[in-house]
Amino acid sequence: MTNGLGVYSEVGTLRRVLVHRPGVCMERLTPANRADFLFDDVVWVERAQAEHDAFTDVLRGRGVEVLYLQDLLEETLRLSPDARRLSVERVVSSYTVGLSLVDDLRAFLHGLAPEALTRVLLGGLLISDLAGLDLAAMSRHSLGAVMSEPDSFVLPPLPNTVFTRDSSAWLYGGVVLPPLFWHARRLEVANVSDIYRNHPMFAGGGFDFWYPPGGDTGGFQVDDFAQGASLEGGDIMPIGNGTVLVGMGERSTGRMVEHLARSLFAAGAAERIIACRMEQARSYMHLDTVLGFVDRDAITIHPPVVEGMRVYSIRPGDRDGTFDIDQERGLVPALADALGVKTLRVIPTGGDVFRAAREQWDDANNVVALEPGVVIAYAKNTATNAAFRAKGIEVIEVEGSELGKGRGGCHCMTCPLSRDGLE
């Protein structure tokens, strides 16, 4: 693939990742609004930044190229007038700010420098940020303006951007820009879409958009949300050998799995999708919160969830656009078969039933592999990390007490752009 883009497994050598460093978007979390933004608690931002910096230092120290979403978005807005115009039009509409404010706010954002506009797209916009606008005059014509306090959000922040795994997923020779489940996260996909369609590193890169086809809808469609169809990157794993593993829990629906399957099968990019029906709970919001790949023949799982899944293999049907669907005996045997290994080593969340539950909550299974047999994990999950080491897995520990307050670990914080396949 051109530009070295493409992700061909979950454990092959990791070459390049997209991350987002915590910043202003987290500074606007409060005890009153943190649940609206899907965080369990407010975040000590400076500590979260230090934890994230240490995490990316480990990545670079192992030869991984680290790209920052904020930098790429700013460069995109600077280099592409079309991307800048479309991003402003998308974020400022009659539905996001009200009919009467659209023209004034679009003009305001168009007047910002790329760095300032990027800050708004990620960190949101307050009434008090609208320097230079006649707020008194606007209040006479806008219900939203007259009812707002100075610290009210005109545009909300996107603090979950730190979990770059969810807003796009690279599968073999292409990428998915999925329609996310929660309203608080949907514009994350729009920002990533702008980068992939317009930044020089990606534009003309020769990769496919598995969803939406052509990548020209900004990564989400109103009709999808109206019908309740959603998909998130934390549920999607290209495990190798032409197989994609997809979880269907709180945030990913079977209807979107079928869209993904049709696109991948039509292009010959995959020949099998293993879909697993998960318990729908915040504790297990994505498949990667209960399952991770740590070696060519080894996975980590949280047994209380994984062992109870219903698992199906989807393959192309006899006619175009149709599927053959077979129920599997369980996830572990299905994965072993897909990976071509006789026995798949399984490392459960560590400790007794109480400790295992705590460590799963703290992202013990949400590890990211740097190469076969080498993973980065949160240091606080001592029992699970010890279990990894006992099975010959090298564990590089990082702190994550603040980063984890958004319910995400090392896997969630990395969107691989380039990863080798299985040898």
Keywords, separated by commas or semicolons:
Pentein; 5-stranded mixed β-sheet; globular; 34% helix; alpha/beta; 4-stranded mixed β-sheet; L-arginine/glycine Amidinotransferase, Chain A; 423 residues; 21% strand
Write up what this structure looks like.
With 423 residues, the chain is α/β, with parallel strands linked by helices. The strands form six sheets. The chain has a five-stranded mixed β-sheet with strand order 9-10-11-14-15, with helices on both faces. Strands 1-20-2-3 form a four-stranded mixed β-sheet. Strands 6-7-8 form a three-stranded mixed β-sheet. A hairpin with a 2-residue loop joins strand 9 and strand 10 (243-248). The chain folds into two domains: 2-66 and 159-419, L-arginine/glycine Amidinotransferase, Chain A (5-stranded Propeller); 72-155, Pentein (Orthogonal Bundle). The protein contains 17 helices and 20 strands. Helix 3 (69-79) packs across helix 4 (81-91) and helix 4 (81-91) packs antiparallel against helix 11 (186-198). It is globular, with a radius of gyration of 21 Å. 34% of the residues lie in helices and 21% in strands.
